[in-house]
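Milestone M4 deliverable, item 7.
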Amino acid sequence: MTIDHTSFNVVWSVLMPRRSLALAALALVAGCGGTGAAAQPSASPTSTQGRDFQIQTLKADCMKGKGFKYVAWVYPDVPLTDEDEQRLSPDFATRKAYRETHGYDIMYRQIHGRPEGAKDAPVDPNGAIRDDLSPAQQKAYGTASDGCEAEAIKKVTGKVVTSAGDLVQQMNKLYAQRMKRELDGDPQLVELATAKADCLTAKGYQVSSTKPTLMGDWGRQSVERELHERARKEDKDIPPYDPDSGVAYGTTRLTDQEKRQYLQKEIKTAVDDIECGKDFDAAFSPKATQIWERVSQ
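Output delivered:
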């Protein structure tokens, strides 16, 4: 999913690895065109594909009525890539090894692009349709796309949104609210989160809070926040960083050397994060995943 902008890409921040799969799939099935980062395959897309295709069919009819070509398209169920398997592995050593080269996949993707196994993944045909339009037509297409998405989503789900992106952000915020309500008071998680924070502090990091929900995604958010703030200095139209929204901007105005420097810093943070949070993550991840599954349903 992308936001039209001349210099910046949107990075969809996620609190849990499995959640990233669900969010990416949702973004595609809700009809987001464009040329942004490729979606990851959904962990369980078939349960909602009928509903999603209904949304897409309504959107296609709406777009036709506005004079635009649009193909009703739902992201299919595809196997996880080798990189996905390593990143999501239940084995701690395997996940740590992944972080030692990829970090959180934020800067790694800017440098290396899509993983080999994802290069042959299905691609939404509407991105190419939009790219063939003139800049003025693309702007009109984007406005029509958002409006038709909102209309189709409301008809099928009853949800009032401004676009598919708005729906994703609403889900992110609901997820964050339920996480805080259910997990920040969990005695076991509070104890383990404090231990993780102490470990990170000993390694020289600044930890502003030991709440379980903040410690659960502390590392990724610290990396995203830094890149987001750099982007804001370059473009005043970018809103403040809001971790609950699931959206963060990353500047594309980086030299190759700067990208490598950012990647090395990200890798160090990611490795320290997973080492200090080994016990915390083992207790936190299953509970967070259960909450996300309830929200997505």
